[in-house]
Amino acid sequence: MSKKKNDYVAVGGQALMEGIMMRGPKGTAMSLRLPDGTIETQMKDFVSVRKKIKPLNLPIIRGVVSFVESMLFGYKLLMESAEKTAFDDEEVENESKLDKWINDHFGPKMMAVIGGISAVLGVALAFFLFMWLPSFVFDLVNDNLAGGELLKLRAVFEGVIRVVIFVIYMYAVSKMKEIHRVYMYHGAEHKTIFAFEHGKELTVENIRGEKRCHPRCGTSFIFVTILLSILVSSIVAVVFPALTENRILWVAVKILIMPLIMGIGFEFIQLAGKYPNKFTRLLSAPGLLMQRITTAEPDDAIIEVAIEAMKAALTGEVPETPARDAESAE
Questions:
Q1: Hey, how many other C-beta atoms are within 10 angstroms of the C-beta on 275?
Q2: Which of 226, 228, 215, 326 is nearest to 279 (CA)?
Q3: Which of 30, 142, 182, 237 has the least CB density, counted as fewest CB within 10 Å?
Q4: 46 with 313: CB under 8 angstroms?
């Protein structure tokens, strides 16, 4: 599993609960480390709507479409990985009465119900933290401390608040044991992709020495969109200053310009990954720095899972020889 270093082949992935999804030229694969220590690899059907409707593949538009598709498909696989890897036989035997009641009443739909509630709460939390709260804090400072003199700086002020909130939130989440495991898989995903892009054979030894921060990462995309939102919203505020005077109207404007920001961010991330140079590296630096929080160094057992997913994504077939289990890897 290697290629010439200068041949560009688009590969990407996502960290899951005790697993990794890889998307390559031959398909999309999901590999999971099951509670019994074995690795399960499955090919997943995914055909982008961009291939069916050509106008959706135009620059800027394709970024919005890709973001929505990645969110929906990635969330589906995340829920599936959580369901398959959450419990082993001993934990099932020792589950609480509440767990048994939920399982008896919801059965296979339990994770779907929990996932649906989590998705709604997640969207609400994101709206509150990154849309409403920055505007509320700005109005508080501007009206009570600055006498209304900061109105021209509203977009920059709110942008800085969003950056601070994002960094603090991601750092706090990284301290959770389960999330730290996901971040280890995130690091393995990046290292494996780097090894492939550098034309190396996909072995644990080769992958272990690669970097864990990648310019095409979703973390970089989010960070880039935050920075772009500062620039775009600042331009809007200068051209239409009246929009910044009402908090509800301004929040609505920020929501409406998000597709444009996401589209520009997507194009930049793709260019940064395909054409690494001093300029793209400079602009990618904040996102790469952020990945030091959202990725962690993986162990060999985790790297093995990433290798299985990558091989399947490159060949379109599940590897015939299963990887060693977690105990032998250690």
A1: 10
A2: 215
A3: 142
A4: no
